[in-house]
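Step 1: inspect the first sequence and its tokens.
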Amino acid sequence: MIRSLLLTIFKMNIPPYWKCVTALTTLLVLSLHIANVHGLAVMSVDIGSEWMKVAIVSPGVPMEIALNKESKRKTPTAIAFRNGERTFGEDALTVGVRFPSNCYIYFLDLLGKKIDNPIVDLYKKRFPYYNIIPDPKRNTILFKHGESDDYFSPEELVAMMLEKAREFAQDSAGQAINEAVISIPGYFGQAERTAMLKAAEIAGIKVLQLINSYTAAALNYGIFRTKSFNETSPMYMMFYDMGAYGTQVSVVSYQLIKSKDRIAPELQPHLAVLGVGYERNLGGLEIQLRLRDYLAAKFNNLKLTPNDVTKNARSMAKLFKEAGRLKNVLSANTEHFAQIEGLIDEKDMRIKVTREELEELCKDLFDKVVLPAQRALEASGLTIELIEQVMLSGAGTRVPRVQDRLVKDLKSNQPLGRSLNTDEASALGAAYKAADLSNGFKVKAFITKDATLFPIQVTFDKEVIDENKPAKQVKRILFGHMNPYPQRKIITFNKHQQDFDFTVGYAELSHLDENEIKCLGSLSLSNIKLNGVRDAYSKYQGQEGADTKGIKAHFAMDDSGLLILQNVELLIEKTVTADTEEESTLSKIGSTISNLFKSPEEVLKEDKPVHEAPEEDPIPQASNSTTNNTDTFDQTNSTEQVKLNDTIPISDSKKNLKVVTIKETIDVNHEYLFVLPAQDDDLQSSINKITELKEIDLAKSRKETSLNNLETAIIETREKLDQSDYSSSATDIEVRSILDKCSEISNWLEDDGFGAEAEILDSKFDDLKKIVLPVWERTFEHAERPSRLEALNNALNSSNSFLEKIKNTTLDDTPFTQVEIDTLDKLISEITSWKDKQVEEQEKLPRSVDPVLTIQTIAMKHSSIEREMRYLMTKFTSWKPKKKEEPKVKAPTSQTDSEKAKTPEEQDNDSTVETNTQDDVEKSTAHEPSSTVEDNAKSESPLKTDKTNPTDLPIVEPTKTEKNSKLPHDLKADISSWISSALVICIIQIAFRLF
């Protein structure tokens, strides 16, 4: 907000000096309100194929894992629909054991896939009980739910999980959350990333960034180890992440790099992904599926039933769940029994499985363990000797065989790193990134540069010169393999002067096997058609000094790894004449300060040629007339070319030639060639579907709450009536009526109450509450009355003691008037009389009758006496006693009188000390122990008497500690007690107002 405001100021058409003044004033005003800015909570979601982890960052809570409803730190990625109800996580898996087709699992990798994708075929083979049909509009997949007309796309299922993740985060943070960083597998292409963003849009979540899971884990590792990084030599680390679905390995570097801040550069930690390798189907799911099939074959061999267990969907779902449990147990034990009651035809299964059997089943999988690591090293150009340590991440790395193969095949000198939380590393790293990107938090900068896993190129045809010859196709790499991103690239078409089109797609993928290339889906990403090229050229043809620099297409790979075509424009450089003006010093200072507040994009446009790719290697030139041009031209609006010859008049020597840049925007028609993201009506339909399901869940939750409240009220009512305190506070008729009402509601609940709506349940609760509340109120009155009366008695006693001490003190020595004293006296007498009378009447009444002496009336009386005492205490604390004026001793009128008063010794010493009798000295000593030097210095005689004092004792002025202590000691203690009480009451009142 501040940055936008400052940018607006510096774009105003006012002199640079006033721009600076306005900006500095704005910053000063905003700084006064900076204390009122409150940060907003953000979240990260690590949504995996099997588990989902959610982390939050909120004010006072740095990077914390949000717990789910079961107080667990991770939630199964599962959604079930049964009898119109939707369940998530463990509840969904419970439904899935009995009704497998109603519970959707492992659907994340179906995002952005067409119906003919090999991943879809593999999914159908693994989970044959799902009814998967093609989407007629987008050619992607849909889950047809049972026999109903409900259809769910993978984007909608992911949106439901993201919505549930936000619910967990909001419950933990205690506030609304709408911004998130989402962690995804690094092998997600453009189609999958676009689909993930669309799922977040359906859920109503603003995605700050999509971050690769291995990058998030590396960030989580680095933020706690910045002190081990240096500026000269980078530290190389390998992160091996085996999850439920696939395995990803990344080689990253950590280094301290000086920031580009011109004013105060500082060293900032920098993370760069250098190499990535992955195996899409190497994970815990494949191990679990093989173990499931192994158990099924073992059970069939027992011949306990003629039916084949593999043909029964419910039995296979039970076996799948048990295989998951068995896989985890065998990671820590060498053998274990797989047990299922009533697997099929009421036959139980109990089969012993050893770790050796499991390793033999998955031998080919363990042989692939090291392949992703070797690919990552090859892509980074490093050797294993340069790697500081191999850090393990992901639950799959807990398998002992996986660790053994890594140690054996990688041959690293360092032991495997296990300091990362294998489950939560990605979620916590993404949470740090979310806090960094959010406007509500300020964290230490940690720069991350990811790498392009799938290179992207532009394909176009040459400008046709001879119509008889076919057009030659040209390919230009935009983002190569392992190119860092975010970054921008610009491709220039120099010779195309007619409308044309070009295609953007994946480039050479020789580093991938054939099956993996098929899994990517369409290799062509989009087709770009440019309209209005000829019209844009025709505007400047024939103009003097106009030089066309070609059609420039601006591409960007953003932080989320998404390719974006920012704009396409025709660039014209025109030479014009302009008067040379010498800028004033103040104007230069203003221009310099205004550059400080420009956005990075504006600075980038002015500092670098518009047709160059900033901070990147040039795009290779084409060898024909239509090229990817990255030659360096003069900077826009900065380079001046002066042409001097003999024919230029002397009067024109003050003029020069200036090159200005003119940009003509070209219309773009963008056509996606991969799986189309949901748009317009389809998108709104998905949003409406998710909203309706959420409303159903809320209605269900409200009904459950109402039902729970009603059942609890019935149980508590019956229990309380068995207690003497409650039963004695009700008449026999009331007790009978309450018990009858409880029985009536209980019978109604057993018959048809559990199917009733929340409104009906609430009305039943209100009916019970009406007849129960009077009895409960009486019980409460009887229980609380003694303590309230005791408090009132204490207040009356303290007030009465205070009043007696005031009466024993003259009015001149207190700040109180006679009216105030009489008012307090009257109030104490009235409350005491009222209390005694009410207590006497209340003791005559039985407990089952409504009380005459209620807690509310006692509180009102207590409040009135406290209010009066608070007023008197406030007046006393602000009172300052007046000093009494003392008569001055008359000075000698003549020199002779003064000399007569002196003794000879005094005349010699020229002193002015007065003499006192022995009695006077004793009285002074007895009554003036604390006289001050200041008082004696101001007086003309060391001892003065007040003739009006009947005892003829000296009047002593109070010291600084005695000025407010004119009342007796016991009265002061009473006042101090009242002041303390008043302060406590004030603090409590302030706390109630604040909270």
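Step 2: inspect the second sequence and its tokens, then contrast the two.
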Amino acid sequence: MATAPMALVAAVLSPSHGPRGFTSKAVVPPSNPRAAAVPHRRGRRSSSARCAISTVNSNGRLAEADRATAAVATVGLQDLQATPLLRRERHDEETVTMIARVTVHTDSILQDPGKWSFGSIADILFRPNWLRLELVSSELDPKTGEEWEISSYAHNQGRHDDTEFTMVLEASFAVPVSFGPVGAVRVVNEHTREMEIGGITVFREGEESDSDAVTFHCNSWVHPVDKRTFFPLNSYLPSQTPEGVARLRKEELQAIRGDGQGERKSYERVYDYDVYNDLGDPDRDLDTKRPVLGGKDRPYPRRCRTGRGFTKNDPLSEKRSKEAFYVPRDEAFTERKNLTFKAKFALEALNASGRKIRTKDHKSLSFPSLAAIDAMYKDGFRNHPEKDDLDLWSSLIHELEEELGHFLQFEMPEIHDKDKFAWFRDEEFARETLAGMNPLSIQLVTEFPIFSELDEATYGPADSLITKELIEEQINRVMTAEEAVKNKKLFMLDYHDMLLPYVHAVRELDNTTLYASRTLFFLTADGTLRPIAIELTRPKSKNKPQWRQVFTPGSDGSVTGSWLWQLAKAHVLAHDTGYHQLVSHWLRTHCCVEPYIIAANRQLSQMHPIFRLLHPHFRFTMEINAMARNQLISADGIIEGSFAPGKHCMELSSAVYDKFWRFDMEALPADLIRRGMAVEGKDGKLELTIEDYPYANDGLLIWDAIKEWVSDYVAHYYPSASDITGDEELQGWWTEVRTKGHADKQGERWWPMLDSRDSLVQVLSTIIWVASAHHAAVNFGQYPYAGYLPNRPTTARQIMPPEEGRKGMRRLALEPEKVLLDTFPSQFQSTLALPVLDVLSTHSPGEEYIGTHADPAWLAEGKIRSAFEKFRGRMMEIVAEIDDWNEDPERKNRHGAGVVPYVLLKPCYGDPANKTTVMEMGIPNSISI
């Protein structure tokens, strides 16, 4: 039954029906969107620019969470009375009446009705003066030389959109004919509650549909203590800023940076940096103390500063919040996304709750059989897209009914649905290094013999036991080992030097173990990889010498050898799955992108063309990262509890960042070349070492399309290199990325300098690639591939039988299946991991996909709109190319009996909810899940 506030709102407004998708409400830009627009005398329209109409228009709410497309500034309410510019109107010249129509989104009342009293809702609906608007001219007042503003209150009109939970207010202005083009709209919320402003349309009375309309978009929260400034869609470099709003542009940037003091409040919009010192909770439990990530000892990217105080038991650890971690207000999820995300997570947890309750006191309890693992999944209940054609409440009820109908059972992962024995086959083990959820680790072997770079005195002998003789035996002596290296036939998953320093520490933890590993593959004549050797190593200690052994695919022809090979694969898969989660996924996308977002908001005005290019690729990333710090990567969080290497997970990601991460290697071509998976040909094009490498094949198509789009965009706004070097905001952003966001890497010489169009295009393309396609490639395949635990165990719990000696080998001979099940994650660990993998693999309602979502500012500029349409068209061509490749029987890494087609980098076309699986729904613009 509705509460009184909700009942009152429902009586006046209509409920939401469906997502507020941008693409379904595209703006038709004016015929001359770059022209300045100003009021004119009624009935006497001149042909000059000064006689066009001036419009600030939202055209409805265009994007569910495009909250900051328009620029903003924050000023205290006390400043409202101090400025002499308010209500400065001309009384000595003719005026025209301009109407400002404002949409206010009230679905926040539905999200948290408990915070809304009957009086506050009545206040918003019936109080005449709670929202004040100021129109700001883009020109200075010719008489005073000061900014020129006109103020008026907006009044409730009692209108609402049929598909949006919105209310409409209107303000009337008497605007002097000489006022000039409108350069900004300032909004003052005098209500007691924060309000989400959807859009503001300013038009000459009676001519709201004028074709000369200039569009502004808000979609942003305005708190009672704020005075917010929204700029038009016209993009300007700092040197091109209209005089009338030049001060506001700088004021906005200054306000958003904050002063670095105090704890941030949930309603604030302050962007600042801090180290990762909030992952532990030593005041609750000293065992959860975690080292600070960020600084000389443990280099790491920076996160958003929250300003909480420090714990009593560790002066370096920040207190954990009982509520969600602070993120700047406009970075937070929309109400629909937040409710859906929480509902999905809660329902997945419900699926696992019964099994967790039964096993929480026996966290090491293994599955009794492979059949028991299969019983966790409901056949026919598959990992599929969620329908997005229902309103919020209907979709939640639909999902609840579906989940309850499969209580204690999970969706069937696609890998197991396609082939029940895929997890056991060596062909699939190898194929997934090229077309699975972590295709970023496979590398070419360029030197032989293989050696470790670690200190022999600390860890033991550096040479590998994968010898020339062993390789040649495994490849049936079709060539020598040296020839195999020379002919680029040997490839490797190398987790040896990375994991060896952590082996002893991880083995002290409960319910897990660790080795360092090397896995060698041979490229066959049909273009597929065949695993030929796995080397597992335990480093030496004070009491024990180094232990290591090489396992091969049953070369001795014995059953025991086959089981040992399967156990060795389980260990390698646990290493690869942990590395995927901590490095390929978390570190290289979520973690490293956050500094770009913080720096962009601090240094780039929201009327800056580069901010408007990047902004769609930053959507929701800071919020999902804050959730990860709170629940996933925190001490005793889900990642530590169910993934290798346990409590040392984040330390490992720091070590990889220190030794491995380089911005200039994050572009796809550079990454492929670094791993030996491609070389640059004489014509400048890449030549792949493995021709049928689905991640690289599809990724290079996307990369080239992104780079062409960015090149067209940059060329329009920067005619020369001097425009780039002279752009103080752009240079300030890139300097801050290097010196603050990635402060521990600021001295590296590999950072690109923004001194030409080529360098700027490369930097921007890299960021867009990482935030969109790279993330899609490593995120949405998690549940389809790792949701079936034997296919990709998240951790390994038992040491190899040969290391245990005669006792271990005797147990293997008697109970081989039990040894394998004891090596797989426990039932408890599985029920921690599976819900998270499923949630992370889900596309959000109202998702914005690359090549389909256009920022309103792009559409307002003719050449940029044309460039984007070309980009969109190229995406559709790529869809057809990928479809052809997936049907090509010669491409055995993506086609064949039981083979899961590679569609993780297939662009969105049509309705994503109509696709067969979540993996083919498209490439989201941003890291939003």
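Step 3: confirm your contrast with the notes below.
Residues 559-603 form the longest helix (45 residues). The CA atoms of residues 246 and 614 lie 22 Å apart.
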